[in-house]
Specification:
Strand content: over 45%
Structural class: mainly beta
Strand order of the largest sheet: 4-3-6-9-10-1-12-13-16-17
Number of strands: 61
Oligomer: single chain
Largest sheet: 10 strands, antiparallel
Length: 656
């Protein structure tokens, strides 16, 4: 009997013998025993110990025990005697020399050990997901690679071929779910069963029960998000509008967003799909297989937003490309002439094309075209960047992409929602670059929080978004009806001198009324003259500048003679920047952008102003008039106003 057998019979473990060379048929495994012994005590690492594996991904609470001491786990080498333990929201990925991985779920613990036969992973609780890729990296010379997961109820072994298997230990049974390839399952009584893709095995002390993993059809419902959304039944040429209650779709039905966006929800899942303006897709089917949701879609044109649910595996199958995720992720997929672009706003995913598997990490964009390797590049931060503070305000007229930022370096978990209780999620997943880009609502709010992998919160923020407010309501002292009389009329203005209406009492016999306005002390030449048929004579905005004026209004008969002489009255236009509102005169929303754009306006007295992230100089009356470069696509000019004791206020001008 092999010296390995007593260890296999007494440990809850996962055995990996690493190396390269020709693969041999899997040897038949001995039946495990009912007793579980504690593996050999961890040894302190010394210079002569060889690295057994590497910890490559850490999310949520994960702790590493080494030499009897525990600390938060970090990516890096794993040695004999190391133990990993995950919390309720924790997870980890362990990479072995030949490219295969073991992913550890929440509330799990395992210990890494080694004996004469190879590497031993003693799993004492939780679940693991083993993946053997189609093409693996050749490691050091040594025995063939073999992976064995041993539970108190039995063991599961994978071979050298591509496979994916999920093993979960419950209180009364072990559950083995084969997602890809073939595995061997051995019960404690020695009974051995080979299981293939689509099978689920219940492993109990008395034996193994096999059943086919049922494919549960998931109901997909389309709703009109904004604008007009249409749907079409399979085989029909007629497009129909989506009503307010939504439409239940069947396999082969089509959806298109003529204007605005279309929202597709999956029954029993937190995953949602959002089809952008001008987009069209065919729903080929959505099914649930055990712990995996699989959506098969034909994206014909446009952009598709994917918000993948936490706590489940997701697979989105597109023509020539599949996207796989083991948890929360937020992706944007765009159809191109020869393939797709995929942006990961948050979360790590795998791109699958045939047998090729490529990684796409949070904050990266992949361009997929033909059979060539995907081109991966970093996503740029959006021009409008919000810090993690509460109560910020953003005024804009159309949806804008904003970057939500924080100071914490390294890997974090980000949640974004449209409500303060985080019950209406917008984005969730891993991030590493200090920001995530999200589409802000035209009107509404965003709330976000950032946590370290072990769960400690490090940042939180919120912002309100809406159309730009008119300054007229703030200018409470503005009086632009100027009556004739001995008292001086004063008009306070902030952005530019307003329109003025000169008034007097109606005169019998008057066919028109003529107004003449002069600068004080310069009565030789009027600065403005206007006539009207009524005793209210308007003067358009901007004609009169800041300063003091005198004016007269003369009633005129039909034959052109004055009915009476004009009486001189006084008018003063005073610039007043005491109103706490940023007023932007230029650029206008939607104007054409050149290489440089003129910006002008006025800010409140105690405000500091920035444009596109750069300080903007203000004159003695807090006015500005200069030229800047626009940023982003479409080009935008972003004004940021900061005031003591108040949240920052942003005004966005989107240009053509």
């Amino acid at each position: 009997m092999s010296t390995l057998r007593p260890r296999l019979l007494s440990a809850l473990c996962l055995l990996l013998a690493t190396g390269c060379g020709e693969e041999e048929p899997l040897p038949r495994a001995p039946a495990p025993s009912a007793e579980v012994e504690k593996p050999a005590r961890a040894q302190v690492v010394d210079a002569g110990v060889v690295e057994l594996a590497r910890l490559t991904t850490v999310t949520g609470e994960v702790r590493l025990e080494r030499g009897g001491k525990q600390a938060p786990a970090e990516r890096g080498p794993l040695w004999r005697g190391d133990a990993l333990e995950t919390g309720a929201d924790g997870g980890a990925t362990v990479l072995f020399a030949d490219g295969r991985t073991v992913e550890v779920g929440p509330e799990a613990r395992f210990l890494l050990d080694e004996d004469a036969s190879g590497v031993v992973v003693a799993v004492s609780r939780g679940f693991v997901l083993s993946r053997v890729p189609a093409e693996r990296t050749r490691g050091k010379a040594g025995p063939r690679v073999q992976l064995t997961v041993l539970t108190p109820f039995g063991l599961t072994r994978t071979g050298s071929e591509e496979s994916e298997v999920r093993v979960e230990v419950g209180q009364d049974e072990g559950r083995v779910e084969v997602l890809l390839g073939t595995v061997e399952v051995v019960a404690k009584n020695g009974k051995s069963v080979r299981a293939t893709r689509g099978q689920v095995l219940s492993v109990k002390p008395e034996g193994v029960t096999t059943r086919v993993l049922e494919l549960a059809t998931v109901q997909v419902t389309v709703h009109a998000g904004t604008g007009r959304t249409e749907w079409r039944q399979k085989g029909s040429a007629r497009w129909r509008g989506v009503d307010r209650d939504g439409e239940a779709l069947k396999a082969g039905d089509s959806v298109r967003a003529r204007q605005g966006s279309a929202l597709l929800t999956l029954e029993g899942s937190e995953s949602t799909l959002s089809l952008g303006p001008g987009g069209e897709l065919v729903v080929e089917g959505v099914e649930r297989r055990g712990s995996t949701d699989e959506a098969r879609l034909a994206l014909l044109k446009g952009e598709l937003g994917l918000m993948l649910a936490p706590g489940r595996a997701s697979r989105v199958v597109l023509p020539g490309l599949s996207l796989e995720s083991d948890g929360a992720a937020r992706l944007d997929v765009r159809r191109t002439g020869d393939g797709f672009t995929v942006d990961s706003r948050a979360g790590d995913v795998t791109l699958v094309r045939g047998e090729a598997r490529e990684s796409l990490r949070a904050g990266e964009r992949a361009t997929v075209a033909g059979a060539a390797t995907a081109r991966v590049e970093a996503v740029e931060q959006a021009p409008l960047a919000l810090s993690s503070t509460a109560g910020q305000q953003v005024f804009h007229k159309r949806p804008s992409e904003v970057a939500l930022t924080w100071e914490e370096a390294g890997e974090v978990r980000v949640e974004v929602a449209s409500d303060a209780g985080f019950k209406k999620p917008v984005l969730a997943g891993v991030a590493r670059r200090g920001f995530v880009n999200v589409m802000a609502p035209v009107k509404g709010s965003l709330y976000w929080r950032v946590r370290r992998p072990e769960g400690a919160e490090v940042a939180r923020g919120s912002a309100f978004f809406g159309p730009e407010r008119s300054a007229k309501g703030a200018l409470g002292r503005l009086r632009n009806r100027v009556p004739e009389g001995p008292e001086k009329t004063t008009i306070f203005f902030q952005d530019k001198p307003p329109a003025v209406t000169f008034t007097c009492q109606a005169e019998p016999g008057a066919a028109s009324y003529k107004v003449a306005v002069y600068r004080s002390g310069a009565l030789g030449q009027p600065v403005a003259e206007r006539s009207a048929s009524a005793p209210q004579v308007p003067l358009e905005a901007g004609v009169l500048k800041e300063g003091s004026f005198v004016w007269s209004i003369t009633p005129v008969a039909a034959d052109g003679r004055p009915v009476r002489g004009g009486r001189m009255s006084k008018l003063e236009l005073v610039f007043d920047n005491s109103v706490p509102t940023l007023i932007v005169n230029a650029p206008r929303e939607g104007q054409r952008a050149g290489r440089r754009v003129r910006v002008s306006g006025v800010a409140p007295v105690d405000a500091k102003l920035f444009v596109n992230g750069r300080p903007l100089s203000l004159d003695s009356k807090h006015r500005f008039d200069t030229w800047v470069s626009s940023e982003g696509r479409p080009p935008r000019v972003v004004f940021k106003m900061s005031r003591p004791g108040a949240p920052d206020v942003y005004s966005v001008r989107t240009l053509k």
